């Protein structure tokens, strides 16, 4: 099959859009229109294979599919659609998928217009030098205003507004026009089938029978079953177990040539050895240089994951190992906490990625887990000039040995209707954000750009932004740099014992009110003991807030009706001494809600 189609008749394209603008629905309609999937097998979101993807309406894993299409000119074309994730946490996967294509369909919702992630992915596509085909979707909605949206896209891309396609993926309106536009506007792949093999890995997943399945776009050369292949970044050699295409299920073909998209079953045991962005070449006749742009996906958000029952520790370890087979961006290492015993410190690409992993652990592996408050990775410079990376506040060295603490800052873009300009400004400045620039892409919409510390946006920033703008604002962010600031460790002492799982690193100006809010919250959550339990917030060498959980008290005077007052005093004194002794040996159980209290501080 590979030899029948010349590269002139191959079109590789992807769909970029903000979440919920109809990307997966359009992919479904394209599969139906080209007859790539049987009507009996048709379900909604065919390419989204995970239950979580269907529920949340978000593509989490990139996927690919080959379609055969007979165009109006009578020629048959091979169309390779690479479906990319829309969420900002999976930006690296998106960038690799874009490099596997020559064109992109830019989908914009007719009722919502351009949003932050649409723009972010559009800039990635322009960097990858792709042909952009703008499409306005959901024109059948009562709230659609396609003329205004067309104007907005026209201004952004410099194309006439009346030439932009208008479709409804849900009802299948104008889908043929999209396929014709792909054939006519997306350039065919360039590539030499006789040159040394170079293939880009744009995604991978783990199969228990065939090992790691690498999703590849062959740039140059031909890959055959007898070849010995080399991963250039990880320096791992493999013999392919199977070579094939996605149609949309995996179908062996025996060979992949320059310009084609397909898969290689490698037999490797972990996704780490076959990373997204790596270049595959031949061991005997390697390419001179790998394809550009490879880098390791770096975790931005860290949290501790602990089993609620100690005996589930091994099951949790096994579950994380299995998840890492499928998701190379998940990192974890063992961690011990005084309050929560044994668990793992995990690194995630962002909050959404963390939420997905948490849900998968609970659903797919049936685990009860506690996830501690998320934190970010700090750079700590000691007095000797040594630079340390710290992702857990409990690991912060003694304050007297620290010269400075640097925290990660992000560049964020917020798209919002102009009515909410003030609300967005107030939210970001309250979170230590610096205003940079603003643009007005349409008459009643504004794009605001800020710099803000990552620690300020990982907890509830997005929820707050949505509630203050009635759900209209959208957010995108990229890492900017590490900057020094006046940061301190905020510790919580329960019964004069530091609870490491509740420690956090905060700005000195915020320490007092954050400590106070946390102490008040914990006072309500920690059950009364037989003795008084003091809860203290401790920062910068002193206690900044304190509250007591009152003791349960037995009425020891109940049997003293009448009689001398000294007898009553003696009984109360004895009770007091007993409680003091209890307090010295007493162990305070901290309920799970306390660990979520940090997350919910901003809600009250």
Question: Which helices and strands appear, and what pairs or packs with what?
Answer:
Elements: E1 10-16, H1 23-33, H2 51-56, E2 63-70, E3 76-83, H3 91-99, E4 103-109, H4 116-127, E5 131-137, H5 146-157, E6 165-166, H6 175-185, E7 198-207, E8 211-220, E9 222-223, E10 229-231, E11 236-238, E12 242-246, E13 250-252, E14 256-257, E15 261-265, E16 279-282, E17 301-307, H7 313-326, E18 331-337, E19 341-348, H8 351-364, E20 369-371, E21 378-382, E22 387-390, E23 402-417, H9 421-430, E24 434-442, E25 445-453, H10 454-457, H11 461-468, E26 474-485, E27 487-494, E28 497-498, E29 504-507, H12 508-525, E30 533-539, E31 542-549, H13 565-585, H14 593-597
Parallel strand pairs: 1-3, 1-4, 4-5, 5-6
Antiparallel strand pairs: 2-3, 7-8, 7-16, 8-15, 9-14, 10-11, 10-16, 12-13, 12-15, 17-19, 17-20, 18-19, 21-22, 21-23, 23-25, 23-26, 24-25, 27-28, 27-29, 27-30, 30-31
Provide a quick synopsis of the model.
This protein is of the alpha+beta class and 604 residues long. It is 26% helix and 32% strand.
Structure description:
The radius of gyration is 29 Å and the shape is globular. Strands 11-10-16-7-8-15-12-13 form an eight-stranded antiparallel beta sheet. A six-stranded mixed beta sheet has the order 2-3-1-4-5-6, sandwiched between helices. Strands 21, 22, 23, 24, 25 and 26 form a six-stranded antiparallel beta sheet that branches. Strand 7 (198-207) and strand 8 (211-220) form a beta hairpin. The chain has five domains: 7-185, 3-Layer(aba) Sandwich (Rossmann fold), CATH 3.40.50; 198-282, Elongation Factor Tu (Ef-tu), domain 3 (Beta Barrel); 301-374, 2-Layer Sandwich (Alpha-Beta Plaits); 379-485, Alpha-Beta Plaits, CATH 3.30.70; 490-501 and 510-603, Elongation factor 4, C-terminal domain (Alpha-Beta Plaits, 2-Layer Sandwich), CATH 3.30.70. It contains 14 helices and 31 strands. The chain has 604 residues and is α+β, with helices and mostly antiparallel strands.
């Amino acid at each position: 099959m590979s030899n029948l189609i010349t590269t002139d008749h191959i079109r590789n394209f992807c769909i970029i859009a903000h979440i919920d603008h109809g990307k997966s629905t359009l992919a479904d309609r394209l599969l139906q229109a080209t007859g790539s999937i049987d009507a009996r097998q048709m379900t909604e979101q065919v390419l989204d294979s995970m239950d979580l993807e269907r529920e949340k309406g978000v593509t989490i894993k990139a996927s690919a599919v080959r379609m055969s299409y007979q165009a109006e000119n009578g020629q048959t074309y091979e169309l390779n659609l690479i479906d990319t994730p829309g969420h900002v946490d999976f930006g690296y996967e998106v960038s690799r998928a874009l490099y596997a294509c020559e064109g992109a369909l830019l989908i914009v919702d007719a009722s919502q217009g351009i949003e932050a992630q649409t723009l972010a992915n559009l800039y990635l596509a322009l960097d990858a030098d792709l042909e952009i085909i703008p499409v306005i979707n959901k024109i059948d909605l009562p709230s659609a205003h396609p003329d205004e949206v067309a104007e907005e896209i026209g201004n952004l891309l410099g194309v006439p507004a009346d030439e932009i396609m208008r479709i409804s993926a849900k009802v299948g309106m104008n889908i043929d026009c999209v396929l014709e536009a792909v054939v006519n506007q997306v350039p065919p792949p360039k590539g030499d089938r006789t040159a040394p093999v170079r293939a880009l890995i744009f995604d991978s997943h783990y199969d228990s029978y065939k090992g790691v399945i690498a999703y590849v776009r062959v740039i140059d050369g031909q890959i055959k079953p007898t070849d010995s292949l080399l991963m250039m970044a990880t320096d791992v050699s493999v013999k392919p177990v199977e070579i094939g295409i996605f149609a949309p299920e995996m179908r062996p073909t025996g060979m992949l040539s320059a310009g084609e998209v397909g898969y290689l079953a490698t037999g490797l045991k972990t996704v780490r050895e076959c990373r997204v962005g790596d270049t595959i070449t031949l061991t005997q006749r390697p390419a001179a240089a790998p394809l550009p742009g490879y880098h390791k996906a770096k975790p931005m958000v860290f949290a501790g994951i602990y089993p609620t029952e100690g005996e589930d520790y091994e099951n949790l370890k096994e579950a994380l190992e299995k998840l890492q087979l499928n998701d190379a961006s998940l990192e974890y290492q063992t961690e011990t906490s005084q309050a929560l015993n044994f668990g793992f410190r995990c690194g995630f690409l962002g909050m959404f990625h963390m939420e997905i992993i948490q849900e998968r652990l609970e659903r797919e592996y049936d685990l009860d887990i506690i996830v501690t408050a998320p934190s970010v990775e700090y750079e700590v410079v000691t007095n000797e000039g040594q630079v340390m990376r710290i992702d857990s506040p409990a690991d912060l060295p003694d304050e007297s040995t620290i010269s400075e603490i640097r925290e990660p800052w992000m560049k964020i873009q917020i798209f919002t209707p102009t009515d909410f300009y003030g609300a967005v400004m107030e939210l970001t400045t309250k979170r230590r954000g610096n205003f940079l620039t603003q643009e007005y892409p349409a008459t009643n919409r504004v794009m605001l750009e800020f710099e803000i510390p990552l620690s300020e946006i990982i907890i509830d920033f997005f929820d707050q932004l949505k509630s203050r703008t009635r759900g209209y604002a959208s957010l995108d962010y990229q890492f900017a740099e590490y900057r020094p600031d006046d940061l301190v460790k905020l510790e919580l002492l329960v019964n004069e014992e530091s609870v490491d799982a509740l420690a956090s690193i905060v700005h000195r100006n915020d320490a007092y009110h954050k400590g106070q809010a946390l102490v008040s919250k914990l006072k309500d959550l920690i059950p009364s003991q037989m003795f008084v339990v003091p809860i203290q917030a401790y920062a910068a060498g002193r206690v900044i807030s304190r509250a007591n959980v009152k003791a349960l008290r037995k009425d020891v005077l109940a049997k003293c009706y009448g009689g001398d007052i000294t007898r009553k005093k003696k009984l109360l004194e004895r009770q007091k001494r007993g409680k003091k002794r209890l307090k010295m040996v007493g162990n305070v159980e901290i309920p799970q809600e306390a660990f979520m209290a940090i997350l919910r501080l901003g809600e009250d």
